[in-house]
Design a protein that fits this description.
Layout lengths: L7 H18 L4 H8 L3 H8 L8 H10 L4 H9 L2 H7 L1
Helix pairs in contact: 1-5, 1-6, 2-3, 2-4
Length: 89
């Protein structure tokens, strides 16, 4: 199976997702959040840095739950300017 290359917009959306999740994690350690979400620290790191721009829905939902961010708020935050979101939080 050949995966279709991601568009620039998909990569950009993945970067925004990572920024928003990192801001929501705030001062909590990656280890704590990853453990609570049931994922590896490396997976969380890759999502936060945009290296996994299209993570699985259930992975995103688990991280959002671990950082206390409702999915609808996460969606809205990822549509806009993530840097502005992190400053407003």
């Amino acid at each position: 199976m050949v995966r279709v290359p991601l568009t620039d917009e998909e990569r950009s959306r993945g970067e925004r997702l990572g920024l928003v999740l990192r801001a929501a994690r705030a001062r909590r350690s990656m280890v704590d959040v990853a453990a609570e979400a049931g994922i590896s620290v490396e997976t969380l790191r890759k999502i936060e840095t945009g290296r996994i721009p299209t993570p699985a829905f259930f992975t995103v939902a688990a991280i959002a739950d671990a950082v206390g961010m409702p999915l609808d708020r996460l969606r809205v935050a990822c549509e806009g300017d993530a840097a502005a979101f992190s400053q407003a939080s």
